[in-house]
Amino acid sequence: MNTLLKxxxxxxxxxxxxxxxxxxxxxxxxxxxxxxxxxxxxEVVTITLxxxxxxxAARFLDPAKPEDAAVREAIAGIKGIYVRKYVFDxxxxxxxxxxxxxxxxxxxxxxxxxxxxxxxxxxxxxDIYLLVEQERANGLAxxxxxxxxxxxxxxxxxxxxxxxxELEGQFGIPKLELEQKK
Amino acid sequence: xxxxxxxxxxxxxxRARGGESSAFATLVRxxxxxxxxxxxxMLSDRHRAEDLAQEVxxxxxxxxxxxxxxxxxxxxxxxxxxxxAIDRMRQESRHDSEPxxxxxxxxxxxxxxxxxxxxxxxxxxxxxxPAARAVVVLRYQEDLDPVDIASTLDxxxxxxxxxxxxxxxxxxxxxxxTAIVEDIR
Amino acid sequence: MSKDFEQQLREAxxxxxxxxxxxxxxxxxxxxxxxxxxxxxxxxxxxALAASVVFAAFLGAHQWQxxxxxxxxxxxxxxxxxxxxxxxxxxxxxQAVNREAPEPADDGSGA
Lengths: 182, 185, 111
Fold this sequence. Notes:
The complex is a heterotrimer. By secondary structure, chain A is α+β, with helices and mostly antiparallel strands. Helix content of chain A is 29%, strand content 31%. Chain A is globular, with a radius of gyration of 17 Å.
């Protein structure tokens, strides 16, 4: 059942990822400025890759290297990637209302929640949403929060979740397994 | 002992840049253990490790004018050694198809209390994917901190920490013979 | 326990020396390379002189290209980091899904 459920999710994402086409609506979220948080945070990651920067980055992916080629494939239909991650040394110093304001945008038409994770022990919340329009995934949003950290990932454009998943094991992307000897 | 053995690394660098072969040879003697060990842990084969180590020093010879200090030299050698090893591994796509006989021999020569355990650990490290293996080797063989590892491998610190955390979890579990379960509750 | 394990890992990965004579083999290899390089010097001098004139003309363009390359490499680095973070969070979700799904009665596979 584990395998079936996982395969069902991947299949759904695969169906939704079929071909690129004209985008009906923009899957870009309005992300708060989080002004003043940088001073309080022990670690900040702010990534804003608009179409121009994504194109530039793609030109520096070496098609001869398998891992770079896989990334090129994964981002083929993507128009933008936006990441905000803040880590703190004490609990809940960040304005949860700001994080919730992003979650609220995901109740707009088209956004569908794919997965919701709630961990009572670690007070961890992870929500993954897809913007589905005419059976195509045109946006991805991940909001992950815990007492000392929150991460928001917004990917705009045609998302191929299967190819994103296939990046596992490269570039420090999770899924670590020991290679089996023959 | 040769006279050049008493010179500081900075003096050796100055002389080597001036064309003194003996100075360069002394640099090789001083750093061969570091370079060779990195190559050996990454490639898991003595012959290939020696070949790669020789290439690193050949490259150093060509680039000696650009090395301006002992610190820079150590950083440069590690960076070139590990990145060449990663490139070699990816080109050959031979992550661990050969038995780790050389690592077995290494472990047996040491004086630690549990050679079997250490041999097992060395074998498991040799089975890690290239990038994770490089991070573990630089951390636990070269004793670099995550910031220096990030510079050496041109990775973000977060990626380094992610590799370390996951590699240790995996290695610990495999050594202990337990399945890996990440408890997210 | 964690400290012991890491200390044992350090011992397992203790640095080792190459086989005896490594330094001599390196210096021999360097000597061979220098010998090959000498025969190419004369030919390269005249080529270098001509190239230097052309090079000066393209220097400005090259510097621009270098800046662009730096920007591109930085953008690539950010892209990789963004995908890594995305994968990290997707991984949490996948694991949660796998843990929550009930085992069917006839499924003998482990978790």
